[in-house]
Amino acid sequence: MKPAPFTYHRASSVTGAVALLGELAEEEPKILAGGQSLVAMMNYRMARPGHLVDITHVPGLAGIRRDGGALRIGALTTHRDVEKADLGPDFAVLSRTMRWVGHLPIRTRGTVGGSIAHADATAEWCLLAVLLDAVIVVEGPAGRRDVAAGGFFLGPFTTALEPDEVIVEIVFPRPAPRAALTEYADRRGDFAVVAAGVDLDTESVVLGGVGSVPVAVRPAGSPGEVADGLDLRDEPGVPASYRRGLVRTLVARAREEVPDA
Ligand SMILES: Cc1cc2nc3c(=O)[nH]c(=O)nc-3n(C[C@H](O)[C@H](O)[C@H](O)COP(=O)(O)OP(=O)(O)OC[C@H]3O[C@@H](n4cnc5c(N)ncnc54)[C@H](O)[C@@H]3O)c2cc1C
Q1: For residue 245, what is the domain's CATH number?
Q2: Domain holding 152: CATH number?
Q3: What is the DSSP string of the chain?
């Protein structure tokens, strides 16, 4: 399949991208970042944007930097950039988790901001953002605002982002040396059936694959208590009992994978 016709625009600044999103609002413009989700959806005609606003040439949107105890990751930073980065023990959980994101070519092009904006409930970046209380920095016509990850994901592929806003940065506000994320997928590189992240310092668990958004459990009890507390339904090919068993196993496994746990 090929995408429906669209007009391509190359933005040279975030302000310019925001202005284009506003000017073209009637014709469903979309930001283009790594294209690893959007282009596939366009090819399947699940998305038919009239305009693509390419932000990949906007300077200053990629990069990882420490800011006191926090870590700031630019929206255009790729999964692979994070996987290869030496983030030290404080944020090594981010690098370690990247092995679960698709395959190498996808990690090489796909971006952190794109993952957060796409808001798949099992996407590793969405889970990490909720688990570690990240802040999503977005820019719109009125300037920048911070959105807590806990309130950013509103439903399946739905976020608090306004149509004319661009994600510029994701801020992980505090070190997370005792965190880990693990998952089960039917095939290597697929999205997870269930993913589980834990942060022992905040007694938090985050789960993917058990709801329409990442599900945080805090304070989290034993793996069995976490699993038994979920409202799960049978789905085609995935009985609730199977998913509950995965949650129990993966929460326990994630806890075992925490360094020096
Ligand atoms: C075969 C395959 C397997 C995959 N497996 C996984 C997986 O296991 N885990 C996982 O997390 N992901 C997976 N992905 C998706 C991948 O991580 C994508 O890179 C990611 O979901 C989107 O990032 P992107 O930069 O490619 O965004 P794009 O595809 O360019 O955009 C995605 C959406 O986000 C919007 N957007 C992008 N950037 C911004 C921004 N800065 N501000 C506002 N809106 C923005 C776009 O308008 C679009 O709606 C997989 C993809 C494929 C094709």
Answers
A1: 3.30.390.50
A2: 3.30.465.10
A3: --PPP-EEEE-SSHHHHHHHHHHTGGG-EEEESS-TTHHHHHHTTS---SEEEE-TT-TT-S-EEEETTEEEEETT-BHHHHHHS--HHHHHHHHHHGGGSS-HHHHHH-BHHHHHHH--TT-HHHHHHHHTT-EEEEEETTEEEEEEHHHHEEETTEES--TT-EEEEEEE-S--TTEEEEEE-SSTTSPPSEEEEEETTTTEEEEESSSSS-EEESS---HHHHHHT-----BTTB-HHHHHHHHHHHHHHHHHHSTT-
- Confirm whether 59 is domain-assigned: no
Span from the CA of 260 to the centroid of ligand 1 (angstroms): 33
At residue 200, does pLDDT exceed 70?
yes
- The pLDDT value given to residue 261: 66
Per-residue pLDDT reduced to its tens digit, 34-78: 999 999 999 999 999 999 999 999 999 999 999 999 999 999 999
Q: Which residue owns the Cα nearest ligand 1 atom 1?
A: 102
Q: What's the rounded mean pLDDT across residues 7-14?
A: 98
Residues 49 and 113 both lie in one domain: no
pLDDT of residue 233: 94
Protein residue with its CA nearest to atom 50 in ligand 1? 102
* 18 within ligand 1 shell (Cβ under 6 A): no
Q: ipTM greater than 0.90, yes or no? A: yes
Q: What would the pLDDT profile of 134-192 be if each residue is shown by its tens digit?
A: 999 999 999 999 999 999 999 999 999 999 999 999 999 999 999 999 999 999 888 99
- 213: domain range? 179-257
Q: Which atom, in ligand 1's list, is nearest to the CA of 168?
A: 41
